[in-house]
């Protein structure tokens, strides 16, 4: 028993140290869609947490379809960077549009070329908050640069047999959207030699904000105020339609994994696409691909996110309010 605990601690410590070292420079791929009442807002929460995290350097942001069309996600990413990206030293010129749909797999874009330019300068951790089309395209066009990607953190994957039911009696079912929208891209990434860390829906769904959290963000700086204002309808949907206790900010967990890895429990798993196109993981899968799987997180993770949304304060307090 003691030996097993020691092995688990050693493995967790290894992962935590590796995460801190490897996460020095990250690239974020996002399908951010905040601003539309019917779209998810979790990408925006994740981006603001990243903007306010001195532990990481954001080399660039690529946009993709997923939660909304590419033109919308690109405009929204540019807006967030222009208004809230200053603490991270970001400018709009560091936002690059990528794939418009899964049909763009293998077609070069501004995103794939910008990522290639960055990798020629340094190794990077790739944080994928949306479908993997942009990354898979890059791997097809620039296979010689695969080793420059230290690891991929992907919001997707599920345990075999999990129907992803949330809310009372797990009656509100969702799908593994980032996998569902381009399973072919997932297959390309699985075939690569890049270390893969999965942030599954089942785990990340537990990271929620509720009405009290949203109200508390209203007067906590421009970024927090903006997120609060544009999360009203989204939170209503999760509370009154899905029946959950709050709205899940799925993608924020991926950012926590590169800023506070000690808050997340990591397990070794084997992953593969099944016949229905789902990315399933298990402790023993024939022909499965070894991955790291975030299976739980410390309750302190929520406080960490809320704290990062409200800090740092803007130096220019005379800046006009964001609407």
Features:
323 residues; alpha/beta; 10-stranded mixed sheet
Characterization of this structure:
Residues about 1-25 and about 315-323 have low confidence and may be disordered. This protein has helices at about 1-20, 40-50, 70-85, 110-120, 135-140, 175-180, 185-190, 200-205, 210-215, 220-230, 230-240, 250-260, 300-310, and strands spanning about 25-30, 55-65, 95, 125-130, 150-155, 160, 165, 170-175, 195-200, 210, 245-250, 265-275, 280, 290-295. The protein starts with a helix and ends in a 14-residue tail after the last helix. It is globular and about 50 Å long. It is of the alpha/beta class. α2 packs parallel to α12 (about 250-260) and α4 crosses α5.
How far apart lie the N and C ends?
A: 56 Å
How many strands, what sense, and barrel or not for the largest sheet?
Answer: 10 strands, mixed
Structural classification = alpha/beta
How much β-strand is present in the residues?
A: 15-25%
Whole-angstrom Rg: 19 Å
Q: How would you summarize the topology of this molecule?
A:
Blueprint: H1 2-22, E1 25-30, H2 42-51, E2 57-63, H3 70-84, E3 95-97, H4 110-121, E4 124-128, H5 133-141, E5 149-154, E6 158-159, E7 165-166, E8 172-173, H6 177-180, H7 183-191, E9 196-198, H8 201-204, E10 208-209, H9 211-216, H10 222-229, H11 232-242, E11 247-248, H12 252-259, E12 264-273, E13 279-282, E14 289-297, H13 300-309
Parallel strand pairs: 1-2, 1-4, 2-3, 4-5, 5-9, 6-13, 9-14
Antiparallel strand pairs: 7-8, 10-11, 12-13, 12-14
């Amino acid at each position: 028993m003691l030996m097993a605990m020691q092995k688990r601690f050693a493995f967790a410590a290894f992962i935590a140290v590796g995460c801190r070292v490897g996460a020095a420079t990250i690239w974020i791929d996002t399908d951010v869609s905040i601003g539309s009442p019917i779209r998810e807002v979790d990408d925006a929460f994740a981006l603001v947490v990243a903007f306010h995290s001195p532990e990481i350097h954001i080399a660039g942001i690529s946009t993709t379809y997923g939660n909304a069309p590419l033109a919308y996600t690109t405009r929204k990413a540019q807006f967030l960077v222009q208004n809230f990206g200053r603490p991270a030293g970001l400018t709009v010129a560091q936002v690059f549009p990528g794939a418009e749909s899964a049909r763009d797999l293998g077609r070069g874009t501004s995103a794939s070329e910008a990522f290639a330019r960055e990798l020629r300068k340094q190794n990077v951790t790739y944080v994928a908050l949306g479908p993997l089309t942009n990354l898979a395209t890059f791997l097809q066009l620039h296979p010689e640069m695969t080793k420059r990607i230290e690891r991929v953190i992907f919001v997707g994957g599920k345990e075999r047999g999990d129907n992803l039911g949330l809310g009372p009696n797990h009656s509100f079912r969702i799908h593994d959207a980032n996998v569902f929208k381009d399973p072919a891209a997932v297959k390309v990434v699985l075939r690569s030699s890049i270390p893969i860390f999965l942030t599954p829906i089942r785990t990340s769904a537990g990271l929620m904000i509720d009405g009290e959290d949203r109200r508390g963000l209203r007067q906590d700086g421009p970024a927090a105020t903006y997120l609060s204002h544009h999360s009203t309808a989204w939170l209503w949907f999760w509370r009154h339609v899905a029946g959950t206790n709050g709205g899940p900010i799925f993608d924020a967990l991926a950012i926590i994994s590169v800023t506070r890895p000690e808050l997340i429990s990591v397990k070794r798993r084997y992953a593969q696409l099944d016949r229905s196109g789902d990315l399933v993981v298990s402790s023993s899968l024939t022909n499965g691909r070894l991955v790291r799987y975030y299976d739980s997180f410390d309750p302190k993770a929520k406080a960490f996110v809320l704290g990062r949304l409200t800090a740092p304060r803007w130096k220019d307090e005379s800046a006009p309010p964001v609407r």
